[in-house]
Amino acid sequence: MQAAEQIYRQILQVEPDQADAIHLLGVIAYQVGLYEVAVEYIGRAIGLKGNVADFHNNLGNALKNRGRLDDAIACYRRALQLKPGYADAHLNLGVALKEQGKPDDAVACWRRALELKPDSVEAHYNLAIALKDRGKLNEALACYRRALELRPDYAEAHINLGVALKEQGKPDEAVACYRRALELRPGCPEAHNNLGIALEEQGKLDDALASYRRALELKPDFAQAHNNLGVAFKEQGKPDEALACWRRALQLKPDYAEAHYNLGFGLKNQGKLDEAVACYRRALELKPDYAQAHNNLGVAFKEQGKLDDALACYRRALELKPDFAEAHGNLGSALEEIGDLQGAEDCFRTALRHDSRFPFAHYKLAELLGGTLPEQDLAAQRRLLEQIELTDAQRLLLHFGLAQALDARGEYAEAAGHLERGNALELSERRKCGREYDPREHESLVTRMIGVCTPDFFARVRGFGLES
């Protein structure tokens, strides 16, 4: 580029108003990151020769990199007035419109670019990202794969193909994509971070930790990698290390909703409910449609004895995500506490319609119905307990659920065996979270029970249960 710049300047010594040379000096300035200089040169070229589509397109690129999106969009539109079949201007207009928060308009631009130039790698790539964001995973995968057919060494496309495959529930294929990206770009922290996420999904926690740490060696201020490292520590039963990671992520990126959510989760598990509530509230200020944060805020409220607030949170989570099995289960649990037993059962069954393998809903049904639990529900719990991929936290719920139902049916020996195994797992899980028996928490539970069991409550549930 230095040699090219010298030639353009020699031309301008002879012919100071040579628009093409001025434009190309602007292009060089853009390529080396001197965007203001690029705007100055290309604008001057347009002043001399205003009907060249390339000039307007390149001015748009420089303006976009200065954060002047409206001006950039105007430049791309002017380029397309001059040259309607200009594929690169359609591509660049799409990128600017996406940054402006107009994804549908962006998609239309990239589709038009591909009609004009079917081998445009960047158009396939950008269209794939937009389609994935809209939940159209199969179309997105096809676009990523087409981009990689055209440019097999496109590391970013390998990374994003891996992200889409992971979302599709294919962690093994995702891992292969990230490893290919790292063959092409070994120093790419994003690829190491995403590899860690996929490895964690495969249950390979030690390998995931190594990937996150490598990402942080390459990019120490990588907030997402700190957040993900915290999740891995949580899964390993290292709550203090997890909390430190989430706090570091928030130092680096204070508006990181997911890190506020994770920090709230970790604090709740340590019984620090007021701090957890504050974290969930902050996550929701940053991301009001964050269904998981509404749900977990409800859990924290319920543990504080604020059942009305908890119910409101669960219902809001379900407005945002109607198939959210966990929120259906939590809503049922809160309804059970206020004595709406039929409403509770309906919620647990709705949760199982959305996720037949949801242990909490199975457990709560068994607890609620006891000896009247239908045989098919009992059989479903037994089958699920045989699944090897269950976590200990899921397995203990099924043991407790079976114990409740079997005890109520008079099958005491089998019930006792399930209780013994459930208790051992429960103790292990509590120790992982840094929590064992907390007298204050138990006192809070008893206080809530006293609050629920009023004369009005007993009048409403007259005829339930056993006469004794």
Main features:
468 residues; mainly alpha; single chain; Serine Threonine Protein Phosphatase 5, Tetratricopeptide repeat
What's the total number of strands?
A: 0
Amino-to-carboxy terminus distance: 92 Å
Q: Unreliable segments (pLDDT under 50, ≥5 consecutive)?
A: none
| CATH architecture assignment name of the domain at 255-355 | Alpha Horseshoe
- Looking at the structure, the CATH topology of the domain at 255-355 is Serine Threonine Protein Phosphatase 5, Tetratricopeptide repeat
Instruction: Supply the number of helical segments.
Output: 27
CATH superfamily of the domain at 255-355: Tetratricopeptide repeat domain
Global geometry: elongated
What is the overall pLDDT average?
A: 92
Explain what you see:
- With 468 residues, the protein is mainly alpha-helical.
- Among the domains are: 255-355, Tetratricopeptide repeat domain (Serine Threonine Protein Phosphatase 5, Tetratricopeptide repeat, Alpha Horseshoe), CATH 1.25.40; 371-454, no CATH class.
- The chain is 78% helix and 0% strand.
- It is built from 27 helices and no strands.
- Helix 6 (87-99) packs antiparallel against helix 7, helix 7 runs antiparallel to helix 8 and helix 18 packs parallel to helix 20.
- The relative contact order is 0.03.
- The mean pLDDT is 92.
